[in-house]
Amino acid sequence: MKLSAFEKIIRKVVREEIDYALQREISFLKEELIHQTPKQRIIENPDNTQEVENFRAKLKAQMPPPNFNTGNDTLNSLLSETAMFPTPEETFTINDPVNQFINKDYRPVMDAIGKKKDFRP
Predict the structure, then answer these.
(1) Whole-number pLDDT of residue 68
(2) Quick one: CA dihedral 81, 87, 91, 97, positive or negative?
(3) Is the pTM of this model over 0.85?
(4) Is the dihedral of CA 93, 97, 98, 102 positive or negative?
(5) Burial (CB count within 10 angstroms: exposed 0-12, middle 13-18, buried 19+), residue 36
(6) 43-69 pLDDT, tens per residue?
(7) 58 touches 51 (CB < 8 A)
(8) Distance in angstroms (rounded) separating the CA atoms of residues 115 and 11
(9) pLDDT above 90 coverage of the chain, percent
(10) Distance (Å, whole) CA 12 – CA 36
(11) How many CB atoms are located within 10 Å of the residue 9 CB?
(12) How much is the average pLDDT of 85-106?
């Protein structure tokens, strides 16, 4: 048997074994994910909004103002203005429809999607 033919056979066997081992490991990991209980989600309590705002104010007070030294005054002022721009939480009020849409609890929808995905007639 020629050396090149022997080398090709060994490569083919090694490739098949690696494919088989990867498929086995992937199926094992998929099974683990399916049987794993989802981690509990932390939902912000609307009762402690004042505490959250106080905490954010303390954080902002502790952070030094950004200092941009790019050599271009226009760029520096633009970067400073952008850094001081309010966060989305500050721009949207609690009763704002966009805020309600973003913070909506989508767990029932995702559960229904999961059930439909697993359904096989």
Answers:
(1) 76
(2) positive
(3) no
(4) positive
(5) exposed
(6) 666 677 778 788 888 887 887 767 778
(7) no
(8) 43
(9) 15
(10) 36
(11) 11
(12) 73
